[in-house]
Amino acid sequence: MLRYRLSMLFCALSLAFASQTAMAALDVGTTAPNFTTKASLGGQVFTFSLADALKKGPVVLYFYPAAFSYGCTIEAHDFAEAVDQYKALGATVIGVSHDDIDTLNKFSLSECRSKFAVAADEDQSIMKAYDATLWLKPDYANRVSYVIAPDGKVIYEYTSLNPDKHVSNTLDALKKFETKAPAAGG
Fold it and tell me: Which is catalytic among the residues 25, 66, 72, 94?
């Protein structure tokens, strides 16, 4: 209960300061930093490689502050509900936070509903590479979503601590990308 209350306080303070600070994120057109890390899908640990995921199609990479916090739970539910839409667009979804893999095993089962993977970034190296650290508390991730094309280029970025638009915005970006991509065999 104490962790929940601290998470709520942290989110409220973050929202208060976020509007007053510049938010850094990778620019569209930037090559996404490659990474490999421990991840969990349905409570099963595996090694996630961005390079390998991009071989299958676009990747929606989203950063979130903390598993089981209020906004992060909402966002995980939203992504889980939309997974079939992402798959129809050929995309892989992966969430990243500073949480340890044991916490993410539980989060992947409950809040992610075993629909998509969540990755552990305990040393914040991935968050830092993607300019996705939270200004107020840099050991936590900011809520940033990226869409990365199979060539490794960032084609969309959205930063907001409010979880409401991350799914709809990344789906829209993927749909625009799909209409611009050359037809197979053509």
Answer: 72
